[in-house]
């Protein structure tokens, strides 16, 4: 097997031991990105000279010489972010040393390219971008998930072994589920964020998208600036919350998630019990209100009118709607946030993790991002935030774990949430589930990558 097709920890280990030449790996990565650009549209910009300079100056850190992609949401010293959009929402962005850049540089990693993303991060599908949509390596006519669409497509398509995404309302977890990856949404405030265009966010975090939990732990440790130490998953107490997050999902999604949880319970010698979260039914609208209001901090009516036709009609309509949001609704959303945080604090005294499907249905077609659920057809952008918004609203960590394939051969994902600061426990649970399934799903290869 080519080192290009190996995981992040394998690449880092091979370079550290001297078995692999990091310059050869970098050049091979750039070549593969170019070869698969048309099929995936996952990496929208490369800069070989700067990447080679990073390698020449890299310290011998835990990610020494390993190529990493970064979502188009942070500046680099030689490139300003574009947010997958034709025009900025506020002042023109500038190149700079963002938090993720410094974290990767200090770990010895090499930033090899900029990953595509859903326009302004305003979608869960990845179907809209100024660069054109990224494509799902499992079926290139399907959505890769958003808004970290290119980050997920690049890892699943074996362009890179790890990528940095951002999660505002599930934007790491959705593409992880759609593309069959492990994606960690960290505890709020724990991962590198400086230089982000939403300077005072209370919902968005950077995080790793990788093939398995060990790779996420390695990349997450770099983004956190601290080791993500393993925590004991033995005797794991799993909480099940009944309601829409379980019941209004496609049957094959529910069945796969239930089977995965039973395997996790058995592997840890744990328990499963039903719990309730007060205010859960309000988290969809409140997480959207909080995130959207923070993103509009630098937007003015004049700026909105000046965006131009290069910005999609959907984005312009949503931005106009956001400008009309009454301030009282934000205050009420804050009240719900407080209510749900208090409820979660109580719940996490009873259980270690909460579990439900990451997404209610597998990746829909790019041409029609509609999912068909027991309650009827819905835009994926309605169904997905319902599954994920609570983690961003409250700041708890969450993870999406690959658990199988649908009848169409598309990945399915299980979501686990834990108490604040217990990111390591989520990774331990994911690793336990990997072992229980003989690593079948983390080592599954999309057709596009397998055929190359």
Could you estimate the helical fraction of the residues in percent? 40-55%
- Residue stretches low in confidence (pLDDT < 50, at least 5 long) are none
Order of helices and strands: HHHEHEHEHEHEEHEHHEHHHHEEEHEEHH
Physical arrangement of strands within the biggest beta sheet = 1-3-2-4-6-5-12-13-9-7-8
Find the CATH superfamily.
Answer: Amidase signature (AS) domain
Q: Can you count the beta strands? A: 13
**CATH topology title:** Amidase signature (AS) enzymes
C-alpha geometry: globular
- Radius of gyration (Å): 20 Å
Query: Architecture, according to CATH?
Result: Alpha-Beta Complex
How confident is the prediction overall: mean pLDDT?
96
The CATH class name reads Alpha Beta
Quote the distance from N terminus to C terminus. 12 Å
Largest sheet: 11 strands, mixed
Put simply, the count of helices is 17
The figure for the number of domains is 1
- The helix-and-strand class reads alpha/beta
Report what the structure shows.
With 452 residues, this protein is of the alpha/beta class. The protein has a single domain, classed as Amidase signature (AS) enzymes, CATH 3.90.1300.10. Helices cover 40% and strands 15% of the residues. It contains 17 helices and 13 strands. The protein has helices at 8-16, 22-35, 37-40, 48-57, 99-106, 149-156, 173-179, 213-224, 244-247, 251-268, 283-295, 301-305, 313-323, 327-350, 380-394, 423-436, 447-451; strands at 43-45, 67-71, 110-115, 162-167, 182-185, 205-210, 237-240, 271-274, 353-357, 370-373, 376-379, 398-405, 411-418. An 11-stranded mixed β-sheet has the order 1-3-2-4-6-5-12-13-9-7-8, with helices on both faces. A hairpin with a 2-residue loop joins strand 10 (370-373) and strand 11 (376-379). Helix 8 (213-224) packs antiparallel against helix 16, helix 11 crosses helix 14 (327-350) and helix 11 crosses helix 15 (380-394). It is globular, with a radius of gyration of 20 Å.
